[in-house]
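Contributing new records

If you add data, match the layout below exactly. Sequence lines come first and carry their own label; structure lines follow with theirs. Keep one chain per record. Anything else will be rejected by the validation script.
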Amino acid sequence: MAGRLISANHAAALAATLAGRANRTARGFCSGVYPITPSTECMELLCNQEFEKGEVVRVESEHSAMAVCIGAAASGARTFTTSSSNGLALMAENVVSAALLRLPVVMVAANRALGPPWNLWADHGDTLLLRDSGWVQFYCADNQEVLDTVLCAYRLAEDHRVLLPVLVCQEGFVLSHTTTRTEVPSQEEVDRFLPPLELPARLRDTPRALGGVDVPGVAEAHRAQHHEAMARVFEVYREVQDAFERELGRRPADPVVPYRAEDADLLVVSMGTIAVTAQRAVDEARARGERLGAVRVRTFRPSPAEQLAAIFRGKRRIAVIDRDLSLGFGGVLWGEVRGLAEPGAVVQGYVIGVGGGDVRPEHVAAVAADLAARTAAGRPVLMETGA
C-alpha cells in the first residue's frame, strides 16, 4: 500500500487498472471510453496504462463506449468506463441493456449538471436520471472512497448472487479534480481481493444471441430475478467489506453512515460531499449545545430503506438535502426517504448546490434553523448558495 497525492479521477483509473490486471489469468480487461468533462482525466490516465491481457478502446461516442463494455463483458472480460452528464444521457439505452443482460460492468460517473444551458459543475441529476436502470449506485464522499468503491464494485458485481452493473458516483471538480492523499494498494493485494471473473453463460465459440424478445410471462420472470438480485446486494456487500478489510486493512463505509445521530433532535440527510460538510456543521452545532445529527446515504440503489427507517425511529425533525432537482416535484432523495419516518415527523426537503454551487457549513446550519422552526413539512425549499 502506497500513499499518493491524486485526484478522484485518477483514483478511479488506478482502481480500474488494478482490477483489470487482476483478471489477467481469465479473460482479461476491456474498457470503452469517450471524453467528457469532468470525467476525461480518468479515461486519459487509463489510456496510458499497460495490461498483460486487455485493451482500452477509444470510440466515437458514449453510447459506443457502453456498447464496447457490453460486448466485452458478455465474453467474460472485466470491463470499465467513465462518463458524465449528457454523456450518460446519450449512453442511457445501453446502460439499461447492460443491466438487463446482467453484465457486471463498472462505471464511474463524475456528477455534472445536465444541459443546455451548459454547466460543468456538480449535480447528482445525471446519475439519478438512471436510478431505475437496474444498476447498483454508490455515492462517494472523498477520493479514497472512490478508489476503494471501484475495487469493491467489481467483487460485488461479479458475485454470482448479484451479477449486476455498478455505478460509482463522484462529484465533478469537487472530487474529480481535487487532489488528496490516497492509499493505493499493490497489485498483489488486489489480486488477493479480486478473484478472476467467471461469468456464467459467457459467450464462447458457439454463436449465441443476446437480448432476444421476451414474451410477457418471461419478462415478468426476468424482472423478478433482477429485483431479487438487487435485494441480495446488501448481504453480499457486507461480505465484500469483510474481504476488503482483511486483505487491504481498512473497512469500506456502510450503505448508510450516521454521524452523531443517536441522540439528535434534528437529522440532516444527504449524499456525496455535502454529507462531509454536514458533519462539520453537526460538530459546530454540538459545540453550541444543539443536538444536530447527520446521515450519509452512500448506497442509493438498492434503496437502504430499512437502515434509514431504523435511524429515523424516534426522530421528529428530519431535513433531506438534495444536490438535484426533479422539476415539478423536488429533490429525488427527499422523495425516496420522506415516507420512512414515523407518523407525525416533519420531513422537509431542501435543494442546495444544484449546478455546482458551493455548499458550506453555514448553509447546513440555515437548513437546521429552518427545520427547527417548522411544525409541518412544506414544499421543497430551493436555496441559493451565492457561489
